[in-house]
Design a protein that fits this description.
Length: about 500
């Protein structure tokens, strides 16, 4: 009887232990919902919507690493995809390592039983600039294993595109077959030649553009086209064509070919319009002062802050984020076409964009004359008003007891509502003089005024300040009452005559 009692007790204890163990696994496990996306694309934010190109309906994106990163690793991107064809999604994590400039891909497979992720492989990419890095996956024809595709900028500011095919041996261990490894000092793009068919890597055509080594001081390029070679399972070059570039001044070419990002940003500074899009078409406004790009169409503006910039030969690559919603990103690939012409390719929200889909912002842009916010010092308006503000050092006053004074490029403004001081600058926008007041208090925003000077009568001058808001295409009064001041004597430069 005692033996039966102890046997039942032992069974009861073992049963309780099994239940507790299973419950613990259930709590600790990570459940990932299976999705049937044809194209798996990298982690990033939601798309901006209205202006975004056609996107995939279904993607499965991870927003963090599902494995513990080591102390010397920092997260860049991640991608959820079934790597070994077992029907369970695995994860690829892109990381940067301390004391190593390159981005690494960590392959982590999910155990179907425990649903835990384990490191299995590591790939060192040739990309060093995190802001330019993009990670994709696509199908391989007649296979349930994916192809890995990554792009980015190298240490010498070349564009890089690498494609790995995933393979499985008899022991179900994955390995990677290099299908493409392209680098160029121009642009690399992938286009899908079979838009209405299943999205597989064999439908892709790769275009790469290099400068012509035989003509180093020209915009001539060499176009190389690669198509899928099913027999060797690589992308093989099928053609090479020399494309003549527009003639351009040698001095400008030498200046912009140095690789100096600031020089190219200065060249871009100002308003660029798309000739093919009509009167109220698309424009891009590059502001070096505010470190931003303003996208405008039909009086609708989107402001994107520049996160990072990388120069390439006769071009520049920007990584930007939306000023209002920082999770929305755009990348701009800008190529010099001429003294006043650029070719722009915009990658919308890289998390959702299908390979080969063109952005509505892509195209040729011409520079609009006299649109740069900071005009050169030989501008008549700039010269005139800077000289006025330097000459009239006495306070400008009015009958309300308000005053405005400029001394040594600093201003002081006293009104019934406030007393401000700081630094000023004169800008020329749309043929109007604009006074920019930068406050000493960094928490206060800059204020812009349309400034005008009139000779009311002999030895009497009137200065008017109308508060405005400034954008790439317009100057708009805020509706605040204008400030009108007077000077009762001639400026110093006149008094010495």
């Amino acid at each position: 009887m005692k033996k039966v009692f102890y046997l039942l007790l032992a069974i009861f204890v073992v049963g309780i232990g099994v239940l507790l163990f299973l419950n613990r696994i259930k709590i600790e496990s990570t459940t990932i919902e299976k999705q049937n996306a044809q194209t798996i694309i990298p982690v990033a934010a939601e798309s901006s919507g209205k202006e975004t190109a056609e996107i995939e309906d279904s993607t499965n994106q991870g927003k963090d690493s599902l494995i513990t990163l080591r102390n010397n690793e920092s997260f860049v991107q991640s991608l959820l995809i079934d790597m070994n064809g077992d029907g369970i999604e695995d994860q690829i994590i892109a990381v940067k390592k301390l004391a190593d400039p390159f981005i690494y891909l960590i392959i982590s497979l999910q155990d179907p039983m425990t649903q835990k992720f384990e490191r299995t492989d590591e790939i060192r990419t040739g990309v060093i600039q995190s802001k330019t890095f993009s990670l994709y996956a696509s199908k391989i024809k007649d296979s349930n294993l994916p192809a890995l595709i990554y792009m980015g900028m190298t240490s010498n500011n070349q564009q890089l595109l690498t494609i790995y095919l995933t393979e499985l041996d008899k022991k179900n261990k994955i390995s990677f077959h290099l299908a493409a490894d392209l680098r160029c000092d121009g642009e690399i793009s992938i286009k899908d030649s079979a838009r209405n068919e299943e999205d597989v890597i064999s439908n892709y055509t790769i275009y790469s553009y290099n400068s012509d080594p035989d003509k180093p001081n020209t915009l001539d390029q060499i176009e190389q086209i690669y198509r899928w070679d099913q027999k060797n399972k690589v992308f093989a070059q099928i053609s090479e064509t020399k494309i003549p570039g527009k003639k351009i001044e040698a001095q400008l070419l030498q200046k912009l070919s140095t690789g100096n990002v600031n020089l190219f940003e200065d060249f871009l500074s100002g308003l660029w319009y798309q000739p093919s899009s009509g009167k109220n078409g698309r424009t891009l406004f590059f502001s070096t002062e505010e470190n931003e790009v303003i996208f405008s169409i039909d009086n609708i503006e989107e402001i994107y802050m520049i996160d990072a910039a990388a120069s390439r030969r006769y071009g520049i690559y920007f990584s930007t984020k939306n000023a209002s919603i920082s999770s929305i990103h755009r990348r701009l690939d800008v190529k010099l076409n001429g003294v006043d012409e650029i070719q722009v390719r915009v990658i919308e929200d890289v998390a959702r964009l299908k390979i080969g889909t063109a952005s509505t912002w892509d195209g040729v842009y011409k520079k609009k004359p006299n649109t740069s916010i900071l005009k050169s010092t030989d501008s008549p308006l700039h010269t005139r008003f800077m000289q006025v503000l330097k000459d009239f050092t006495e306070p400008w006053t009015n009958s309300a007891g308000e005053s405005f004074q400029t001394v040594n490029e600093k201003f002081t403004l006293k009104t019934a509502h406030c007393e401000d001081s700081g630094w000023y600058a004169v800008l020329e926008i749309k043929d109007k003089a604009i006074l920019q007041c930068k406050h000493e208090n960094p928490e206060k925003n800059d204020v812009f005024y349309h400034i005008d000077l009139q000779a009311k009568e002999e030895k009497k001058y009137t200065l008017s300040l109308i508060e405005v808001t400034v954008s790439a295409n317009s100057i708009t009064p805020t509706g605040a009452p204008p400030l009108i001041f007077e000077q009762q004597k001639l400026p110093k430069s006149k008094q010495t005559d």
